[in-house]
Write a structure and sequence with these properties.
Blueprint (H helix, E strand, L loop, with lengths): L1 H17 L13 E3 L4 E6 L5 E6 L2 E6 L5 E6 L5 E10 L2 E18 L1 H4 L8 H6 L3 E8 L16 E4 L9 H14 L3 E7 L11 H4 L6 H7 L4 H20 L2 H4 L14 E4 L13 E10 L9 E9 L1 E6 L2 E7 L4 E6 L7 E10 L5 E3 L5 E5 L2 E4 L2 E10 L16 H7 L9 E5 L8 H19 L5 E4 L15 H11 L6 E4 L15 H15 L12 E8 L2 E7 L5 E3 L9 E4 L5 E3 L1 E6 L2 E5 L8 E4 L10 E3 L8 E4 L3
Parallel strand pairs: 1-7, 7-10, 7-22, 8-10, 22-23, 23-24
Antiparallel strand pairs: 2-5, 3-4, 3-6, 6-7, 8-9, 11-21, 12-17, 12-21, 13-16, 13-18, 13-19, 14-15, 14-17, 19-20, 25-26, 26-31, 27-33, 28-29, 28-32, 30-31, 32-34
Helix pairs in contact: 4-12, 10-11
Length: 639
């Protein structure tokens, strides 16, 4: 019996080794193919061998070229299925079952597109109700490549409560809206990676138009790239050793006797964002002092640390409390009564392996609780860096190390696949150089469309409100990047979902992905599926004129008229500047269905106006009658 088993494996391996008929991974069981467009199918076979593809009674044949590549195009098919696609070449035959014709959308970007359905608001209910057999998802396996690839990894999954937890949440809610409204099958391909720059999603050809990347591109295309990577790996190993042998633990920085008088401060919960910590990977020790009322002493406590990116080790008054790994896990620890005193100090060793970092999440999750009474731990925490990537001469080979790495591995293999369009959620990683986004974003869209050979719809999510609101107007990289996104609407067949009202101050990943997907879907339903009754546009500044000491802002896209949200009807979020260019918060009044008057007693002759121009414009409350938030803007008077 054992001899037969071995022989069976050998024979099976011979068959596999001899097989030359292959297709990219996104051709598979349960796939959705684009309806009403030619169905392009391609792959590899023995050179010179004839290949035949048959689907829903349609058939196409060709011969593989001398390199073994082949491609056919079947006539357009209407929505329907399920079908079986059969691909034959000589004696080889591949059959794909449960194939649907419907709508195909590519979903791409960084972590807010990658964010899974299991982590959204009301996740348990959403997952339990996610039973849509005519919806399918394909999660592209994350892959960095120096050269454009012809295939990727992943598989199609039928949408059910057993599978949907791992779907892109924005992709799911977008697809669900399209599916429910149109009644046709929908397939969405999730090709995203958290913490990524737009440059890594652009092709080498498109990024080479920008001189600031010449040095990186020269290295990437040179013979020295292997030596560079090898040196970086050696330096990275030294960095990893420093992490393992952290000086903070060696010197017992967690003890109350540690002198922390010169330590700087950073707010918590809030992802690291200042000049020193914003680009840091490594180890940072964070500490916070709190006082307990006398009546709470002598009782066990529950410590909640919100989330820590990526891992923590935690002490109170020098006693080790616990440790957890996972950037999006809310930490809770039991603190024995004997550890606590009236005056206490919590020390958290934060280890960050890449992108982001710190104690972050909801303020309501950062506390210590005794006998049902919560004491907030939010505020200014002192910190000290013990290990920093800046001390080591390495370029961590991640998706942002060089332009085009994710385009090569996660976009290029799909070029030619017929699809309706793209939805995109990215930009957070580019806020520190937001001015470049005005050129990079449209360049990427134009390049993708050129490679597919048609001007497919491209819809994106504008950055949500994030971080602490400010008391006086200041310059904002987040506002500038939002403006760059808005400027890209000059390209045809584009649309933007404005979500400055859906964000969370302490969490760069707002949990309300339902409304994000719904606002994106409005664009597709109106523009691509002929549902003109579905309003899809956010109000936008059309013109600014001056009347005495006031500015009159006229808006487009007001539907039945502008509306002010809030209990008292006060209009907020506006600021004006005079000749000195200094902005002051302003008063504003809705004076017509499409007009707002704006003025400020401190600015005698206003010349410029801004609306929702901040990292977190949490008070912006101007909407149209369809409930769509007004697009942030910066504008000058018409002279």
């Amino acid at each position: 019996m054992k001899r037969f088993f071995v022989l069976s494996i050998v024979l099976c391996c011979v068959v596999v080794a001899m097989a030359q008929l292959r297709l990219p991974a996104f051709f598979g069981n349960h796939m959705v193919l684009q309806r009403d467009m030619p169905v392009k199918v391609w792959g590899e076979a023995a050179p010179g061998k004839r290949v035949t593809v048959e689907l829903a009674g349609k058939k196409a044949s060709t011969k593989a070229d001398k390199t073994g590549h082949w491609s056919v195009s079947l006539p357009a098919l209407q929505a329907g299925g399920p079908y079986t696609m059969v691909v034959k070449s000589g004696k080889e035959c591949i059959a794909f079952e449960d194939v649907l014709m419907g709508e195909v959308w590519l979903c791409s970007g960084q972590s807010n597109m990658e964010w899974r359905l299991r982590d959204v608001r009301n996740a348990d209910q959403e997952v339990a109700e996610a039973n849509y057999p005519m919806m399918r998802s394909f999660n592209v396996a994350q892959a960095m490549e120096y050269l454009p690839q012809n295939d990727l990894k992943g598989m199609w999954q039928v949408c059910s409560s057993a599978t949907a937890h791992d779907f892109s949440a924005v992709g799911y809610f977008f697809a669900r809206n399209v599916h429910v409204e149109t009644g046709v099958p929908v397939g969405f391909i999730n090709s995203s990676w958290g913490g990524t720059d737009i440059e890594t999603w652009m092709s080498l050809e498109s990024i080479s138009r920008f001189p600031q990347y010449n040095e990186q591109l020269s290295l990437l295309q040179s013979d020295g790239i292997e030596a560079f990577v090898a040196n970086s790996q050696e330096q990275y190993r030294a960095f990893e050793q420093a992490l393992r042998e952290d000086v903070g633990e060696k010197e017992q920085w967690y003890l109350p006797t540690m002198d922390r008088s010169g330590w700087p401060t950073h707010k918590a919960p809030l992802e690291w964002c200042n000049d020193e910590l914003g680009s840091l990977d490594g180890v940072v020790w964070m500490t916070y002092k709190f006082t307990l009322p006398q009546e709470l002493l002598g009782k066990d406590a529950i410590l909640s640390l919100a989330c820590v990116d990526d891992s923590d080790k935690t002490w109170i008054n020098g006693t080790f409390i616990g440790e957890t790994h996972g950037y999006n896990v809310v930490r809770t620890y039991i603190v024995p009564a004997e550890v606590l005193a009236q005056e206490n100090e919590i020390v958290v060793k934060v280890t960050d392996g890449g992108s982001g970092g710190g104690i972050w999440g909801n303020a309501s999750d950062l506390y210590i609780m005794i006998d049902g009474r919560r004491i907030s731990l939010c505020g200014e925490w002192s910190y000290q860096v013990s290990v920093s990537n800046a001390e080591y001469n390495f370029t961590h080979v991640g998706p942002n190390s060089f332009p085009s790495l994710l385009f090569n591995g996660m976009i290029h293999p799909m070029i030619g696949l017929s699809m309706r369009g793209v939805i995109w959620y990215q930009g957070c990683n580019n806020t520190n150089r937001a001015n470049q986004y005005y050129d990079l974003f449209p360049a990427m869209i134009n390049d993708w469309r050129a490679r597919w050979g048609y001007e497919f719809p491209f819809y994106w999510v504008q950055l949500a409100n994030f971080m602490q609101p400010v008391e006086t107007p200041v310059e904002s990289d987040w506002a500038r990047l939002r403006d760059a996104q808005t400027a890209t609407l000059s390209l045809p067949h584009t649309g933007q979902a404005v979500i400055i009202d859906l964000g969370e101050a302490h969490d760069i990943h707002p949990r309300n992905k339902q409304d994000v997907g719904a606002r994106l879907a409005r664009h597709a339903l109106h523009n691509d599926y002929g549902m003109e009754h579905i309003y899809h546009l956010s109000p936008m500044c059309k013109q600014v004129t001056q009347e005495n000491n006031k500015l009159i802002v006229t808006f487009d896209n007001v539907a039945e008229g502008l509306e002010v949200s809030g209990r008292y009807g006060y209009l907020c979020g506006f600021a004006v500047a005079g000749e000195d260019g200094v902005f002051h918060y302003a008063k504003a009044l809705l004076i017509d269905k499409d007009k707002v008057a704006v003025w400020c007693d401190e600015v005698e002759k206003p010349l410029k106006v801004r609306y929702a121009w901040a990292d977190n414009p949490d008070d912006a409350n101007l909407y149209n009658s369809e409930g769509l938030a007004t697009t942030p803007f910066e504008a000058e008077i018409v002279k």
